[in-house]
Amino acid sequence: MEKKIAIIIGAGPAGLTAAYELLKRTDVHPIVLEASGDLGGIAKTINYKGNRIDIGGHRFFSKSDRVMEWWQSILPLQAVDGGSRTITYQRQSREVATNEEGPDPDTVDEVMLVRERTSRIYFLRKFFPYPISLGPKTLLNLGPIRTVRIGLSYLKALAFPLRDEKNLEEFIVNRFGRELYSTFFKDYTEKVWGIPCKEISAEWGAQRIKGLSVVKAALHFFKSLLPRKHDIAQKDTETSLIETFLYPKLGPGQMWEEVARLVREGGGEVILDRQVVGIEFDGDCVASVSTVASDGTQAETYAASYVISTMPVKDLIRAMGEAPPAEARRVADGLIYRDFITVGLLVQDLEVRRDGGGPDLIEDNWIYIQEPDVKLGRLQIFNNWSPYLVKDPDSVWLGLEYFCDEGDDLWSMDDEAFAEFAIKELGHIGIIRADRVLDHTVIRVPKTYPAYFGAYDEFHVIRSYLDPIENLFLVGRNGMHKYNNQDHSMLTAMAAVDAIASGSADKEPIWAVNTEMDYHEEK
């Protein structure tokens, strides 16, 4: 009997999950084809002179037991005693062995850390909790006049909600009131997407905000004042309100590098630098996939019993040539993506201090920069994700995140000019001093965020063409043009393998992932 082969396009979380699951549960041989030279997609970890960069920040948290158990089966979880952190957010006080690649991963036994989540908003040159709570610090920072306006606006939204939520602005105003929307949602969201909230589909809010509300945020604040036990699951907590998460000690890429190793060890293939440029059909099924290396050489064709695709839908349709109907090609060409630039910045220290002052580093994993006079969107403090991301524990390793469009003014800056621009912005808002910068690097990531505008409202045209192709399964964030988190992307891959294992061609269980009303995340 001829061996069945699954061609998996993309070595990010969805693609590698699919390969690993196929090996565990079927006799299908997985071949993962990755266009870049890296593993993990946007969940990869980049090593710059021993300092590691987590692109976008990846909290390993899920309300799916299947995913939580899966992660911990790959990387063991450190012991947690009495709810305390085994490794604190302060700079390392104990010795950590280092080498030229930075902290030595073998200096401690645990490889999956339990971390406490801290995110804040930087606005009016002050720190606000994220999500906004009704605590005394928030009210003091806002001042009495703005606080009263927010309260009255919220009550108005409760009494007179907009009946037809046509866009993201109306979706948020209905849940938080116009004043809170204008203060904490509008400018940042438009910084992320580059267009007015009125032009973004309300479906983005339905997928990313969902059950969160002012009432739930307030209840969470008061609940946080009570003594609590360490609880990784936190199933009764809105995802944006979680307080604890798991994190690989060398960043998210450590997880996916280990999964790739296990796939290869189990007999599967993971091939880097193979861009898919052609999809060939035999009747109503995909028959083969054609690839080239980044330099245009090494053209190869792989026969396929199944294809699991995480590549951007726009590129997938183009790779099919004239096979898709003209209408599907038109919609695919109209899909829009938002791109991303990270500046890794090594500094001696920060100008901002913990509450109460003192020399210790602030606790934040990342900070949302809502100041309208800079283009900077978010700031990561990698020391607080894992001390093993930082080569020298006496320095501060930052990630400055910018949202842009490929080819625009930000994207087109050369690396040195962009780094200087980013350093100037961070100094302008009082977080660092430029003369305390030690080193920097610039990383560009295309097609990071599938957009809920452009031709998105017609995406059903693409689905109506692709879903009936029995042996083709779309999974992951870009594969489905759906703003999934890492765990959702994994669940779509698991659902695809479920279908293959059972002989089903029904794609609905895959599309149903991340339609539940208990998720929200800010990435």
- Which stretches are poorly predicted, pLDDT < 50 over at least 5 residues? 79-98, 218-233, 236-241, 517-523
Task: Please report the number of helical segments.
Answer: 17
Largest sheet: 7 strands, mixed
SS class: alpha/beta
Distance between the termini: 46 Å
Radius of gyration: 23 Å
The CATH homology group name of the domain at 5-41 and 255-333 and 456-511:
FAD/NAD(P)-binding domain
Q: Strands across the major sheet, in which order? A: 9-8-17-18-19-16-20
Report the CATH architecture of the domain at 5-41 and 255-333 and 456-511. Answer: 3-Layer(bba) Sandwich
The number of distinct β-strands equals 21
CATH class value of the domain at 5-41 and 255-333 and 456-511: Alpha Beta
Mean pLDDT: 87
Shape: globular
Strand content: 15-25%
CATH topology of the domain at 5-41 and 255-333 and 456-511: FAD/NAD(P)-binding domain
Query: Which bin fits the share of residues in helices?
Result: 25-40%
Q: How would you describe what is shown here?
A:
Helix 10 (313-319) packs antiparallel against helix 11 (326-333). Among the domains are: 5-41 and 255-333 and 456-511, FAD/NAD(P)-binding domain; 130-224, no CATH class. 32% of the residues lie in helices and 22% in strands. The chain is α/β, with parallel strands linked by helices. The longest helix has 17 residues, at 486-502. The chain has helices at residues 13-25, 65-74, 136-142, 144-159, 168-176, 178-193, 202-208, 214-224, 252-265, 313-319, 326-333, 409-412, 415-428, 459-466, 477-480, 486-502, 508-511; strands at residues 5-9, 29-33, 45-48, 51-54, 98-99, 102-103, 112-116, 119-123, 126-129, 244-248, 269-271, 275-282, 285-292, 300-303, 306-309, 337-347, 366-369, 378-381, 396-404, 437-450, 472-474. A hairpin with a 7-residue loop joins strand 13 (285-292) and strand 14 (300-303). The strands form 6 sheets. The chain has a 7-stranded mixed beta sheet. A 5-stranded parallel beta sheet has the order 11-2-1-15-21. Strands 12-13-14 form a 3-stranded antiparallel beta sheet, with helices on one face. It is globular and about 70 Å long. Residues 79-98, 218-233, 236-241 and 517-523 have low confidence and may be disordered.
